[in-house]
Amino acid sequence: MNSPTLSPPPSSSLALRFSLSFALVGLIWLTGLAGHFTPWLEWPALFVYVAGSLGLVLFLGRTGTGRQEIWLAGGNAGRSLYWGTLAGAVLFIMDITNTILYYKSGGAPMVEMERLLVHRSLLYLFPILILAEEFLWRGVMFSSLIEKGVNPHLTVLLTTILYALNHFAVAPVGMRERALMAMMAVPIGVLGGYLVLKTRNVWGSVIVHMITMVAMVLDIFVIPQLLFNP
């Protein structure tokens, strides 16, 4: 007779998710700090961020139960996608409007980001980056905080702050452009956070993030051309 497969008790799984998510963030930030003073800059930290987040999700979500625990499956997926699309559309309009006002008031284009996305062809890797970010912040970390009984509003605030600050650790560009990206991250973190809180499903937040990144590409490549080279 085959022995039954034993699953770790829920408390053990929760502790593992909580510990690994914060340990990964600590490793990312330490790698970014060390790399900043080397010729490699923040590239190693960016690699740890993406590979570590995706690896963590593959490890924790290797079973159906595991995927539900980190909100990749289960919850109200239909509602999540519906409200994610609406929230993404609102952020898209806000982003484009704010960018036009920013440039018209004398703001400088994000030249370093443009160089990275075009000359290093990182634009095509954006979908992978978005998945890694959402799975870590709004999936593994967010779900573990909620299950630990942390106040929902505090959970949204904490994950948003950490997500925004993380741009200073992993973006191999100047501090001004890192700050701009961190500011862009705040509404994504807040809307995405409340979306996954209400639906227990991360995919709506992925949609919000994807739509916002489309807006960011327009911010960098299209809007400056329309405004400065009519």
UniProtKB/TrEMBL annotation:
Membrane-crossing segments per the record: 14-37, 43-61, 81-103, 123-142, 154-173, 179-197, 206-228
InterPro entries hit by this protein: Rce1/LyrA-like_dom (IPR003675)
Biological-process GO terms, alphabetical: CAAX-box protein maturation; proteolysis
Domain CAAX prenyl protease 2/Lysostaphin resistance protein A-like: from-to ranges: 122-212
Lineage: superkingdom: Bacteria
Keyword field: Hydrolase, Membrane, Metalloprotease, Protease, Transmembrane, Transmembrane helix
Annotated GO MF terms: endopeptidase activity; metallopeptidase activity
Entry annotated with the keyword Hydrolase: yes
Protein's name in the database: CPBP family intramembrane metalloprotease
Species name: Chlorobium phaeovibrioides
